[in-house]
Structures are given as structure tokens and as C-alpha cells.
Amino acid sequence: MEHRDDDYLDQARVDSSGRAAVPRRRDARRNRELLIGLAQEAFADHGVDASLEQIARKAGLAIGTLYRHFPTRVDLLLAAFEPRLSEFMTAAETTLLMEDPWEGFCTFLEALCATQAGDRGFNDFISMRFPNSQATEAMHDRLCHLASEVIERGQAAGAVRPDITDADIISLVWANSRIIDATRGAAPNAWRRNLHIMIDGFRAAQHHPLPEPPLTEAQLYQAMVNLTT
């Protein structure tokens, strides 16, 4: 059944003060939930550039209805990825409570890369920065802060090499992104081999000096912005 796209045109009621009140229709809530569900599917299959017009069409709605609920693509991305973001952030925070800092570090990286592997759109989303969205900026800042805490805890224990920064974790995210895309159909778990090769490179024991310094915060930020253009 096709959904009507005039979901804000509910018949007016009159409250006790005599003023007209227009409650949000149940149709509007249902349409919003439908759009989020279809967006999750589209972004997972096609990445963050999935067609919004096709999402609206599949929902049986006009594109204007989609934009009334989600004025920008980033608004829809946030709504679509919120459950996965919350799940990952909760899992990431628990790694700081693990008794062994090295195990916590490895578990954090495994959880991060596994979350990427399950959703192409989420894979894109955490690799990029969207400067005009305060909500995504706060999310990425929190992710980088968590990564820094996990790294510093491992370094304090002498397990993680001392020259690693959160920029190196984002570089791992970028590399993992390409591996996931390249092997999605042929070998969907191939990313785990590369991850554990990288994990060995993060060990403090017998590490060698690196030829280049880590990206500065400004360089890292600009690189993540560049991926959105």
C-alpha cells in the first residue's frame, strides 16, 4: 500500500485553551521509521552516496516527504546509523575496562573493523568528516578520544608502541575500507588477516623507528573531509 506524503496535514484539534493543535500523525512516525529502515538497507549496499530518490520511491513517498523528515543527507545518515553507532561505542568503552591493556587494544580494533565490514555505508561514514554537522563532529571526536584512550592505556603498560596515535587508527580504518570493498564478494573475511598483520605492527616489542611522523590533528581532519568531496 502506498503511503501518503502529506503526513503533516492532520486534522486540527482544539485544546482546552481554544487554540488549534495539530498533533503529529501516526502516519508521519510510520513514514519516518520506514524511511530509516530502507535507508539502512540502501546505505549498507551502496554506501553513503545511495540515491535518496530511490529510498523515497521504495517507501512509496515523494522525495519532499523524505526531506521534511531529514532535511539533509547527513540527517538521514545519522538516523540510519544511530543503532550501529551506539552498539559500537558501548563495545569500545568496555575495552577500557579490560584487565589486560593489550587485549583491550586488540579488542577495540577488532570491534571497529568488524563494524565496518558489516555495512558499506557505516564503513564510509566513520572514514569521513562532515564539517557542517555538529552531531557527526561530536561522534567523530568521541571516536578519536576513545581510540586515544585505548592507545595510551596500552602504551602505559608497555604493550603498544610509543609512537602510535589515533591518526594511525584512522589510517587503519581507511585501509580496511578498501580491503572490505575489494574482497566483499570473493573473501568477505579477508580484512581480518590484514588487521592482525597491522596489530603485530602496533606491538611495542622490537618495534623499529617509522620514516614519517603521524598526521597532525589538522592534517587528519582535512584528510577525512577530503573523502566527502
Main sheet attributes: strand count, strand direction, barrel closure: 2 strands, antiparallel
Shape: elongated
CATH class of the largest domain: Mainly Alpha
Helix-residue proportion: 55-70%
Examine the coordinates and then state which fold CATH places here, giving the name of the CATH topology of the largest domain: Tetracycline Repressor, domain 2
Reading side by side through the largest sheet, how are the strands ordered?
A: 1-2
What's the tally of helices?
10
Category by helix and strand content? mainly alpha
Q: Report the portion of residues in β strands.
A: under 5%
Organism: Acrocarpospora corrugata
Protein name: TetR family transcriptional regulator
GO molecular function: DNA-binding transcription factor activity; transcription cis-regulatory region binding
Pfam family, one: TetR_N
Concise account of the structure shown:
This protein is mainly α. It has helices at 26-46, 52-59, 63-69, 73-94, 101-117, 120-127, 134-156, 166-183, 190-201, 217-226; strands at residues 13-14, 20-21. Helix content is 64%, strand content 2%.
